[in-house]
Write a structure and sequence with these properties.
Layout lengths: L1 H21 L5 H29 L4 H5 L3 H34 L17 H31 L6 H24 L9 H22 L7 E12 L2 E7 L11 E6 L5 E9 L2 E7 L3 H6 L8 E8 L11 E6 L3 H11 L7 E7 L8 H11 L2 E6 L7 H4 L6 E5 L2 H10 L7 E4 L8
Parallel strand pairs: 7-8, 7-10, 8-9, 10-11
Antiparallel strand pairs: 1-2, 1-6, 2-5, 3-4, 3-6, 4-5
Helix pairs in contact: 1-2, 2-4, 2-7, 4-5, 5-6, 6-7, 9-10
Length: 429
């Protein structure tokens, strides 16, 4: 995704400079202010469209970008804030530059003179310009408010999703601004074509989010055939056709009827069934999930992710933070059936006595021939040096951002031998 984002940014700037070379601004400093206004708008518009495309979660996305979905959502968040920031640069460009340029008494660009009695279509086109200007101003401020609300962690997960859905409507509302404020000559330039392609792609993604929802082609139904609660963790065993596609270490989105989909790691795959370990983190996972009875139908979507084990002769260390143990449970199942070199599993938790299914983790490690080391933060937080004490040649981490980044910084092995999965999106509440 990094290459696509940076590639699009470079392409936009190159096409803009190409247009300036062949059709330079005719009115000095004011012309350059207009050009800055133009390029910042198209860049912000493109980043916003990429943000929506990621949110759609099309089946080909991971394959084409060569980026797992958890990392794609890092880019989703990043592109959203970049687009918002550049939108305000775009918005204030003429507001700030015009008074400054007026100090230098630079000539204004000549105004477009419309026909005295335009035809119906020309008159309609002309009348849309003030609407496009005014609506864009209000929609930009609305986008700022919605983005700020989206980071308020006190909000329920359902409300958080609704705010994101409204952002699709904002994008559709801004299409008039992005198309109508282009000059007629712009439609005949590569830069203008790029803007139109962005508008079409982003609009399609916005419509899919509004009417079909994300991940529509990867949806399946399932039935909970076993449920158990231990400590702060709930285990669902779900019978579903999706089990035939899931690989150890991947995750799915799941929810009962009437609830939005939430991401959960798959901890086991066996005979048409998958096992999900769910930590109580909020309203849904803490109040609804533990009380779901056996036989309940669930909606599923996936599988997603590229956090998949590579078992060979090289020494490995797996580091799990809390519920990050879930994908490693699936790895342990695979390790029990496959010859492998020395493997150490480091499990970083708050309190072992309050941790759900700890005995099953220990038993799975014994079956797989994996050394288990448990670090309880209530006693003392483990250091990166302690977690890497076995000098592994491969390192896999599933947990919080601080855990992953700390180990990445301390890692001295080959970059390609470091694997991580971080759920950067909003915790299910």
């Amino acid at each position: 995704m990094r290459r696509i984002t940076y590639g699009f940014t470079v392409l936009t700037i190159v096409l803009w400079l190409f247009g300036l070379w062949f059709m330079p601004p005719a009115y000095n400093g004011r012309g350059w202010a207009h050009e800055l206004f133009f390029v910042t708008g198209v860049l912000a518009w493109g980043w916003m469209a990429l943000c929506l495309i990621i949110a759609v979660r099309p089946a080909w996305l991971e394959r084409v970008t060569k980026t797992p979905l958890d990392s794609l959502y890092v880019w989703h968040r990043r592109l959203g804030w970049w687009a918002l920031a550049l939108s305000f640069v775009h918005y204030f460009t003429k507001t700030i530059f015009s008074p400054v340029l007026a100090l230098f008494n630079l000539p204004r660009p000549s105004k477009v003179v419309h026909a005295a009695d335009p035809g119906f279509w020309e008159g309609l086109w002309n009348s849309l310009r003030p609407i496009a200007n005014t609506s864009a101003e209000w929609l930009t401020w609305a986008m700022l408010v919605l983005c700020l609300l989206a980071v308020v962690r006190a909000l329920r997960y359902t409300h958080w999703l609704k705010f994101h859905k409204v952002l699709s409507i904002v994008f559709l509302g801004l299409t008039l601004h992005c198309v109508r404020l282009m000059d007629t000559t712009d439609f005949m330039t590569p830069f203008g074509w790029l803007n139109l392609i962005i508008t079409v792609a982003g609009s399609v993604a916005a419509l899919i989010l509004l009417f079909r929802g994300p991940g529509a082609k990867l949806r399946e139904e399932g039935t909970i055939v076993e449920t158990a609660c231990e400590g702060a963790t709930t285990r669902w065993v779900v019978e579903t056709p999706i089990s035939g596609r899931v690989l150890p270490g991947q995750f799915v989105f799941a929810a009962t009827e009437g609830e939005p989909l939430h991401p959960f790691s798959v901890s086991g795959i066996d005979k048409g069934r998958i096992t999900l370990l769910i930590r109580r983190l909020g309203d849904y996972t803490g109040e609804v999930v533990p009380n779901v009875p056996k036989g309940t139908a669930v909606r599923l979507e996936g599988p997603w992710g590229a956090f998949r084990s590579v078992l060979d002769d090289r020494p490995q260390t797996w580091v799990a933070g809390g519920i990050g143990i879930a994908p490693f449970m699936a790895w342990l199942e695979a390790a029990a059936k496959t010859p492998h070199g020395p493997v150490t599993l480091c499990w970083c938790i708050r309190d072992l006595s309050k941790e759900g299914f700890a005995d099953e983790v220990k038993a799975a490690c014994e079956r797989a021939g994996v050394t288990l080391r448990i670090f309880e933060s209530r006693i003392r937080r483990a250091t990166p040096a302690e977690l890497l004490a076995d000098s592994p040649e491969r390192l896999a981490v599933c947990g919080g951002v601080s855990l992953s980044r700390g180990l990445r910084k301390a890692w001295r092995g080959a970059p390609e031998a470091f694997m991580t999965e971080e759920f950067h999106w909003r915790h299910s509440r």
